[in-house]
Specification:
about 110 residues, alpha+beta, 2 helices, globular
């Protein structure tokens, strides 16, 4: 049994999936929906560091499952996505040329 947790602002949704393929498809579908609505603005300025939309995480989609599986995708304020593994110590998954964050996540988990 796999659990997909979606954190977007103060809202947290959880979904249970029977297979890893089903869970990854759910993450991709939900991340695309969140990315299409991404419209973060730069924050900060004079007294604090300026944070661009590409640096802001507007949603985090996490996958947990058997064998301490912890991985997911961060949706950025500019609509881009980055895949990661781990829970407390996140490690970004490097995307290869022509590969989406979701393809990189699938490659890492296979």
């Amino acid at each position: 049994m796999f659990t997909v947790t979606v954190r977007s602002g103060p809202r947290v949704d959880r979904e249970r999936c029977e297979t890893r393929v089903e869970a990854l498809a759910s993450i991709e579908r939900r991340a695309h929906a969140l990315a299409s609505n991404a419209a973060a603005r730069p924050v900060g300025g004079r007294l604090m560091q300026r944070i661009t939309p590409a640096q802001q995480v507007i949603a985090r989609l996490e996958l947990s499952g058997p064998g301490r599986l912890r991985a997911g995708v961060d949706v950025r304020g500019d609509g881009s996505s980055e895949a990661f593994t781990g829970k407390l110590r996140r490690r970004l998954i490097e995307q290869r040329r022509g590969e989406s964050a979701f393809d990189a996540l699938r490659r890492e988990l296979s």
